[in-house]
Amino acid sequence: MTAGYDEWSAARAPSLLAFATAICGDGRTADVAVARALERIRGSWSRVVRDDPDLEARRQVVRACATRRRGAVVLRVLEGRSDAEIAEVLHCSESAARRHLRRGLADPRREVVSAESADVRRQLVARAGSASTQLPTRPPHIGAPAAGGGTRSRIWLAVLAVIAVLGGVAYVAHESRTPEGAIGYPRVDVPRTWRYESYAGVQLQVPDTWGWGGSPMRSAIFSGRRHLGSCGTDLAAVLSPADDSSYVSALTPFVGRPAVLTQRCVPWGSAGTIPRADAVWFDSPLAAGVKGVESTVAETRAVGDQHVSVFSRSSTLRRQILGSVEQVDVDANGCPTAVVARPVAGPRDLQPDSLSVCVYSQDTGVALLEYSGSRPRPSATAYAGHVDPAPTGRGARCPTPSGRWVALGLNSRGGTRWDVANLGCGRIVTAGGRSVPMSPTTVRDWAVGGVTAYVGPPRGGDRGLSDDFMTPSG
Asked: Which of 24, 200, 282, 423 shows a CA-CA span of 20 to 30 A to 206?
């Protein structure tokens, strides 16, 4: 079984050639080492794809043309690999990996002694040529002159040579359909206990014990060309109900979305913006690829028009989560990517099987699905019992929701009824213009989990709701 191999190898060939050229010190040797590595991986793809094909490819190259010391230096300085990943490639313990790195950098035959020295990286990049080391992109159109001189031409000729060895015209045709910057992640099976999370049409799965938090957001209030800032991107804001902890800590894993979760907002890149625990950032500003950041490793995948970053020292966890990423029109919690802003009547004699909880937001300037969750049949039945029949009265009408609101989908075999929790007027509006006030009774069956992180208390609503919804911390 080689399903997914062609896309992976086409996307990874440039970065693997750059790595091999830097580590072997000779272009011809690097070409041979990469061709052999890819051939071996193709032969054992069904096994390798369940682990980490990228690290296995580097392991094969190191075995072919480098000492462990040189391999450790290139992995750290050129690619920013963690101690754990270096140890995986070298097939040794983390302490041994650190020893190889230290001795490799202190080798008197080298002109440098520190992994922080920019000179080391310049030397390795110069040796690798102009091929990308972290962001594999589509090669220039075949037959067109390559920009950048002889080095780039040699690298891409090497890429095409590897392609010819491994599949010829079919391989090139397949690669030409790969979007710019795309990296092939094979679909993976994750534990059944993992839950679905989505943002703006991109869905993935994470452990059910993860909490919820923020990711960098774009706003004119921040300085810098990209106007990026952090309003709580390094810490979870809310714990998962499945977490046994009693409070949020710096070690709480979380899923982050662009949202204001603290009033202490800082420009992007300031101290305290990178998660120290395992985390996911939707709509991440990081470039696609793998990069060591502070005390962790970030791996970023381009999906549609957004990037998704996973922070973890565990490459297995990163690949599991990124392997579950997909674009959807309706996510696994039953929430449509297209905005639901008006109530929709459901089937007669509705007997709900579940309740979809969909938070829509205009915080980014365009209305989008910010968060989704799902509640089981007992909660759906209890919610319906609290809002039906919904009374009407003077002053009960609400304007079209804006800013942020919650669409509540009562799902049944016959269809879905949509109610809208309008935070602007503090009421839940159902089809036909009926509405009920948002109160502890009408929200307690759905205002749980991530809802409490991203939805603030409704204006004009029951004061008792302040404990049920997120209020940004000072």
From this structure: 423
- DSSP, collapsed to helix, strand or coil, labels residue 83 as helix
Instruction: List, in order, residues 6 or more apart from 23 with CB less than 8 Å away.
Output: 30, 61, 62, 65, 66, 70, 71, 74
Q: Give Cβ neighbours of residue 56 (< 8 Å, ≥ 6 apart).
A: 41, 48
Domain that holds residue 143: 5-176
What strand order describes the sheet that includes 368-375?
A: 368-375, 354-361, 404-412, 415-422, 427-429, 435-437
The closest alpha carbon to 8, from 130, 133, 136, belongs to 136
CB 469 within 8 A of CB 371: no
Regarding whether 446 and 318 lie in a shared domain, the answer is no
Whether 371 contacts 199, CB under 8 Å: yes
pLDDT tens digits for range 232-289: 898 899 999 999 888 888 899 999 999 888 777 888 777 778 999 999 999 999 988 8
Per the structure, how many domains does the chain have?
3
Helix axes 68-77, 53-65, angle to 10 degrees: 140
- Asked, for residue 50, whether it belongs to a domain, the answer is yes
Regarding pTM above 0.85, the answer is no
What does the pLDDT look like over 68-103, one tens digit per residue?
888 888 888 877 788 888 888 888 888 888 998 888
Do 255 and 319 lie in a common domain? yes
Answer yes or no: do 237 and 321 share one domain. Answer: yes
Cα radius of gyration rounded to whole Å, the chain:
26
Cβ atoms 438, 426 nearer than 8 A: yes
| pLDDT score of 107 | 65
